[in-house]
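Morning F.,

Quick status update on the modeling queue. The single chain you submitted on Monday has been processed. Sequence for confirmation:
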Amino acid sequence: MKEKQETKSKLLTAARECLLKSGHARATIKQIAALAGVNHGLVHHYFGSKEYLFLEVLLEESRQFDRNLDSIHNENDMIKFLTERLFMNARLIVEFQAMAMQMPSINKALGEITMKRKIQLKERLNIKDPIEGDIITSSIIGLVIQYNINPEIPREKILKHLFQLFSIDFTLNKMYSEKN
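Structure tokens below.
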């Protein structure tokens, strides 16, 4: 059982790495398996296909995001979190968006994750107006895409300014804190 989990973990790590280096279109099952140090048949055995392997990478990234989100307690934590977690994964986010246009399972999961992120950010930023929440989350997503194009943009300054534009009172929403 432990060996099975280790093999799956190696494949997920290798798939993530291949996505970042080669992109989803050029990443092959054989490359991923070679990077993981396992037989390529194990990809099909554990995941069924490249699409479902990439789906599991997406779901694991989402679970990691959720675990890290729990450590946010103030505006500086949020900016640090967004800078480290989102912007450092900008290439991966763009890859998943591209895959969503071709792979139904990725499309569905990415849609669900995006809605969940909007709700989480609205709660964490204590935003009551749904339109403001959509503007802020859309701005953050746009900033991530822009960062993928130009990593020199001052992302922390932009995030701080965005929060100021909407007069975000960055106090943890009591309902959110009580739920978790």
